Amino acid sequence: QVQLAESGGGLVQPGGSLRLSCAASGTIFSLNVMGWYRQAPGKQRELVATMTSGGRTTYADSVKGRFTISRDNAKNTVALQMDSLKPEDTAVYYCHAVVLGLEFWGQGTQVTVSS
Q1: 33 pLDDT exceeds 80?
Q2: Cα gap 98→76, rounded to integer Å
Q3: 3-class SS of residue 88
Q4: Residue 96 host element (H or E)
Q5: If we measure between CA atoms, which residue out of 59, 96, 52, 100 comes closest to residue 73?
Q6: What is the mean pLDDT of residues 53-81?
Q7: What is the mean pLDDT of residues 9-30?
Q8: How many Cα atoms are found within 13 Å in the side-chain-facing hemisphere of 44?
């Protein structure tokens, strides 16, 4: 089993920044992909950004140029730097990892962008 622990959510004004962090623990052989998804009220969960162990990144079009994903393979951590936040970025953000084809999710952290 793999456990994912997120931190860093909160309330921020439009145009502000937040940094989310996620640490993986447990029986980890190979963290193939780590990343972030989000789910806003009444909407489906959607991909925000992911990074493979080799450094290949994928971003949702809505966050390109504003969000930056990074990871530390040695520490099994992934972070999401979110800049120029908009009210439509408000959602619960979930850390996600793929280990040997199995998917794991964190409990989620709330991000609210509001004035």
Answers
A1: yes
A2: 12
A3: helix
A4: strand 91-99
A5: 52
A6: 95
A7: 92
A8: 2
Q: Say whether pLDDT at 29 is over 80.
A: no
| Residues 13/115, Cβ–Cβ less than 8 Å | yes
Q: What is the pLDDT of residue 27?
A: 74
How distant, in Å, are the alpha carbons of 2, 14, 15, 23, 32 from that of 96? 10, 26, 26, 10, 11
Tokens in use for 109? 């952290």
Give 105's strand partners.
96
C-alpha 38/C-alpha 84 separation (Å) is 17
Structure-model confidence comparison of residues 24 and 31, the more confident one: 24
What number is the average pLDDT over the span 32-48? 95
Planar angle of CA 84, 89, 93, nearest 5 degrees: 115
What is the DSSP-derived secondary structure letter of residue 63? G
Give the integer Cα–Cα distance in Å for 36 and 15. 20
Neighbours of 34 (CB within 10 A): 27
